[in-house]
Amino acid sequence: xxxxxxxxxxxxxxxxxxxxxxxxxxxxxxxxxxxxxxxxxxxxxxxxxxxxxxxxxxxxxxxxxxxxxxxxxxxxxxxxxxxxxxxxxxxxxxxxxxxxxxxxxxxxxxxxxxxxxxxxxxxxxxxxxxxxxxxxxxxxxxxxxxxxxxxxxxxxxxxxxxxxxxxxxxxxxxxxxxxxxxxxxxxxxxxxxxxxxxxxxxxxxxxxxxxxxxxxxxxxxxxxxxxxxxxxxxxxxxxxxxxxxxxxxxxxxxxxxxxxxxxxxxxxxxxxxxxxxxxxxxxxxxxxxxxxxxxxxxxxxxxxxxxxxxxxxxxxxxxxxxxxxxxxxxxxxxxxxxxxx
Length: 341
Ligand SMILES: NC(=O)c1ccc[n+]([C@@H]2O[C@H](COP(=O)([O-])OP(=O)(O)OC[C@H]3O[C@@H](n4cnc5c(N)ncnc54)[C@H](OP(=O)(O)O)[C@@H]3O)[C@@H](O)[C@H]2O)c1
Hints:
Elements: H1 3-7, E1 13-16, H2 20-31, E2 38-42, H3 47-55, E3 67-69, E4 73-76, E5 79-84, E6 101-104, H4 112-120, E7 125-128, E8 153-154, H5 159-175, E9 177-187, E10 213-215, H6 219-226, E11 234-241, E12 247-255, H7 261-273, E13 280-283, E14 299-302, E15 307-309, E16 313-320, H8 324-338
Parallel strand pairs: 1-2, 1-6, 2-5, 6-7, 7-8, 9-11, 13-14
Antiparallel strand pairs: 3-4, 4-5, 9-12, 10-11, 12-16, 14-16, 15-16
Helix pairs in contact: 2-8, 5-7
Bound molecules: NADP nicotinamide-adenine-dinucleotide phosphate.
């Protein structure tokens, strides 16, 4: 156990939003014997529906624990978690539960004025589960040390930036980058439609399980903020595909130096054995997207698909589990922030 964890032994955690990410995180905390830290959760669904969705999960399978409804919430293998069903962020009362760390997993409250409402309600710190509208993004393994003990709101970005930022960091360090194009190919999420419906970005409203759907994503400007020397050198998009989970980042990079695919793979392999081992990994097995489910890394480079053309044009493909991998990044943040309570 790290010193940070020891000092945060009594950290009290609450989760707002028990959707895919909230429930995946709860499962991970259970698996890591850290459930004792979870004191309360909030969502808008009835409690019995949450218990059902915790017990039975189409992607993760059955929850390996006894989950029972109690007077104030539910218990998991005897550990009681309070449940509130409150849609209005201003009416939440984290002071009542003495919450240290509030994990904001609705995806709705990403402006600092909204996140600050959790602080006003009694939480000491807030960990978002996506990009903050006006909060700088900090990615584990890249710029997480920018977070100071006094920082109250942390935005860890989303699963895609957690996959690509450590890879861009490594490639830029070793070869220098002229330009990058990223396409993140990802399974659908609840922020898409099951059947065609109106939506402000028209394509996002198309039936999620029926087509490949190109999406605009905002990871390029965030990456350019993290890597200031790459300003105006990054383009990004996402393609949503008809699978329920699993993702792959497809990076096309023009390097400043010539190299080989073997060298690129060995840079990533070395990083995966050193201080980036939690975040970066590499496989030479001929895997497909379902094989990455349950993988805790932020990225698993597919070594057999790394290619170099013309000496300096790199094509790199990296798999990630957009739910389980991302929940592991939230766990990294919980460990880090526990040191500050
Ligand atoms: N899914 C992924 O792969 C992934 C990966 C990385 C990051 N993220 C980010 O994580 C966040 C959550 O994503 P998700 O996939 O977990 O979404 P989700 O499954 O839709 O979960 C959000 C949950 O919050 C509930 N909710 C809605 N309004 C609420 C309110 N006012 N108060 C409390 N709860 C409320 C939703 O209920 P209803 O369903 O009834 O609306 C739902 O249960 C998003 O910002 C997303 O970008 C997602």
